[in-house]
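Just wondering, can you check both lines?
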Amino acid sequence: MRRSKWLRQVGRVMCVAITMLVTVVSASAQSPPDPNTGALTLTGGMDFTNAYFFRGIPQDDTEVIMQPHVDVGIGLSSGDGALKSVGVNVGTWNSLHTGSAGLDGPGKLWYESRFIATLGLGFGGGVSFGTTYTAYTSPNNAFNSVQEIAFKVSAGTLVRPYALLAVELKGQADGGAAKGKYLELGVGPRLGVSGFTVTVPVKVGLSLGDYYEGSLGDERFGFLSAAGVLTKGISDGSRFGSWNIHGGVEFLMLGDRNEAILGNSSKVIGSIGIGLSY
C-alpha cells in the first residue's frame, strides 16, 4: 500500500470517529450505579462477532465466533494520598469458532484461551497505571503459545486517553522469527444517552520492533480502528449484579502485512453480547 493510499484510509476512519465523537459529546454524561461496594468485584460476559482480529492480525472471519470472558478484581487498598488505590485482577478470555479456525479447521471449537493477571495503581485526577501478564494458548492447537508483559497508563478524562506497551516474553503473535514489542495509543470516550451508554473507542496499533513481521521485514503500522458500542442496562444490580446487553460496529484499516493475510485493506466487524458486573 502506498503512503498516499494509507493516508486516505486514515482520513476516512478519523472522519467516522470524529462524527461519532461529536454525537456522543453533545449528550449528558451518566454513570450506572455500582451494585457492589466491597473489595471483590466480578465482571464477565459472552460476545458474538462475525470476525476476530488480534491487534489487527487476522484470525478468523468465517461462521459464528463466540467470546466468553470473566474477571475477578480484588481491591487491596485505598487512601487519600498520591496513591489512591491498589488492586489485582485475574481473569480469562476465550474465543470459540465454528468456522475455519475451529470446527471447520482443526476440528475443535476452542480456538483461543487467555490467562490474564493485572496489578493496577490508581492516582489522583483519574490517572491509572497497570502491569499485565497474559498467556495466550490455543486449546485446538491452531497457533503456538505466546506470553507477554504489558504496561498501560490511562487518564479518566472525558476522552479517556491511554497508551499500552506490550513486550513478548515467549512466542510471537505474528508467527515471526523474533519476539516483538507493540505500542497501542487510543481514546475511549463514554457517555450516557437516553438511558444507553455510548462508547467510541479509537485506537492505532504500531510495532516498536518485530511485531508485524512480513515479507519485507518489520512493518511499523499494524492497524487503525474506530468503533461505536451501545450498551443498555437490563437490571438494577440490587441482588444479582448489573446485567447489560450491548452491540457495536468497528471499522478496521490494516497495514500492508495484515492486509496481505486478509486479502483486503479494511474490515467491518459487528458484535453483540451480554455482560455482568457485580
